[in-house]
Amino acid sequence: MGAAEGGIRLCSECPDRMKLMSTDIPLVDVISARPLPGHVLSLTFSTGESGEISLAGMIEKGGPMVEPLRDPAVFARVFVELGVPAWPHGFDMDAIALYMEMRDKGLLRKPAA
To answer: What domain count does the chain have?
Structure first.
């Protein structure tokens, strides 16, 4: 049975699964993050798509890592590290989750031709 021993098929043997993985859970990075007023982030992804997303609801819910972001001066210190938006106090956000949420809400713009 070789590499597929035990009934486990390699991804190269599963073209439908590969398609699912590439369309439903895209492997993307954030390449640019810019803070905007009202706890909004302007993000550009490795796909070239960009858009704005409000983090006000998440910040309103609170939590120890989110609490510092209530301060607009702290929120404004966002930077990109290893493909994700991050802040100096150690909080970061998953690029794939952000991309999928923005895609599903229609918040992404395609890159200009």
So the answer is: 1
Nearest to 76 by CA among 41, 35, 39: 35
Encoded tokens for 72: 């607009």
Let me know if residue 69 belongs to a domain.
yes
pLDDT greater than 60 at residue 45: yes
Which residue is associated with the tokens 């043997």? 13
Confidence (pTM): 0.77
Residue 64 inside a domain? The answer is: yes
87 and 74 in contact (C-beta within 8 Å)?
A: yes
CA separation for the pair 37, 74 (Å, rounded): 12
Report the CATH number at residue 70: 3.30.2020.10
Q: Where are the alpha helices (DSSP H) in 50-110?
A: 56-61, 72-75, 95-104
